[in-house]
Amino acid sequence: MLLIGIAGPALAPRERDWLQHPACAGVVLFARNFVSRMQLTELTQAIREAAPRPQLICVDQEGGRVQRFRDGFTALPALHGFEALYRQDPDSALALAREHAWLMASELRASGIDLSFAPVLDLARGNRAIGDRAFAADPQVVAAFAQVYVAGMHEAGMAATLKHFPGHGSVLEDTHYDVAVDPRPLEVLRAEDLLPFAAGIAAGADAVMMAHVIYPQVAPQPAGCAPRWIEDILRGELGFRGVVLSDDLGMAAAGASGDLAARIDAHLQAGCDAVLVCQPDQVDAALQAVDRRPLNTMALVGLLGRGALGWDGLLADARHAQSQTRLQAVQWQPSAEGARSGAIFSGDVA
Q1: Is 247 a catalytic residue?
Q2: Would you say 251 and 209 are in contact if contact means Cβ atoms under 8 Å apart?
Q3: Residue 115 DSSP symbol
Q4: pLDDT digits (tens, 9 = 90+) for 17-75
Q5: Using alpha carbons only, what angle is made at residue 57 by residues 56 and 61, rounded to the nearest 5 degrees?
Q6: Model-level pTM?
Q7: Which residues have C-beta within 8 Å of that of residue 13, sequence separation ≥ 6?
Q8: 3-state secondary structure of 128
């Protein structure tokens, strides 16, 4: 029900207490929680040992600007670099994106991480928060990448999370800092932004992260607390049967729903299976807010990672070196889409 943030590279006594709460389903890690691969492995093990039930350990490890763990991990290119490759050779670009996904996910699994919130399926249309995190502007191209990226993550034993539903790329505002309103009608959203999500769902994606964007011609609330978006469109029209996650409730745009307790209530009542509270100074209030709610933390068990080999096993896998070599051999073109985002600088979830 709650995925929480912790303050540093080791668990504090107070944070161990949080993990005992029946509503705590997992932990979201950031650069502030990372020192080295060995330390990260020790931290993930400590989280699991401190909790009385399985904990989902998550991160944003997209590549490019949004890569929380760097030292000892492959430096992954931003997704937007694949668009230029696709124009030259679609099949090769899609195959390389699959390797990008496998490499990202396999290194995380080797470190004890269950889930990276990936792939980004927003359209590359100038949004301040998305920028070069998006594959392309063309929905059909993004849809093609969605399918191979989900497949690559699954090959590494990691569930895939499509974000940010129903599409964050076509508004200017960065929801870490500002309220964002997309005035387009549902017919346009279906024809454009929803296409990559439909493709990712068809490919077997396991989770969807909601956007904090308001689409007033569809629903008056931000998408993450709008039953119209979650129950009617995502689950009804698109047939999604997996886990629905909020974006971080500490982001400015989430404030459209009220204070933290109101945000939690609105998202859970709308159909989210779990909500993200990534700022440690908000966790106590979040746990108090869910004290009297019925709990279903087991809904997230299907997102737990599978088949981790550890780093020794991964480095012995020929695919690891081959994938690194293939990515490093590409001349990645700098992107004009690489705007600063609160996803990088505020410490919030992306």
Answers
A1: yes
A2: no
A3: E
A4: 999 999 999 999 999 999 999 999 999 999 999 999 999 999 999 999 999 999 999 99
A5: 130
A6: 0.95
A7: none
A8: coil
Largest Cα separation within the chain, whole Å, is 56
d(CA 234, CA 191): 15
Q: In terms of Cα–Cα distance, which of 104, 164, 158 is closest to 134?
A: 164
Please name the residue ranges forming H helices in the chain: 13-20, 37-50, 81-88, 90-110, 139-155, 186-191, 194-202, 227, 260-270, 283-289, 310-315, 318-328, 342-345
SS3 state at 80: coil
Tell me which of 168, 176, 212, 320 is the catalytic residue. 176
Residue 176 a catalytic site member: yes
| Given the residues 174, 193, 247, 273, the one annotated as active site | 247
Q: 139-155 and 90-110 are packed helices; what angle lies between their axes, rounded to 10 degrees? A: 40
pLDDT for 69-105, tens place per residue? 999 999 999 999 999 999 999 999 999 999 999 999 9
Does residue 80 have a cis peptide bond before it, meaning omega lies within 30 degrees of 0? no
- Name residue, tokens 């430096």: 75
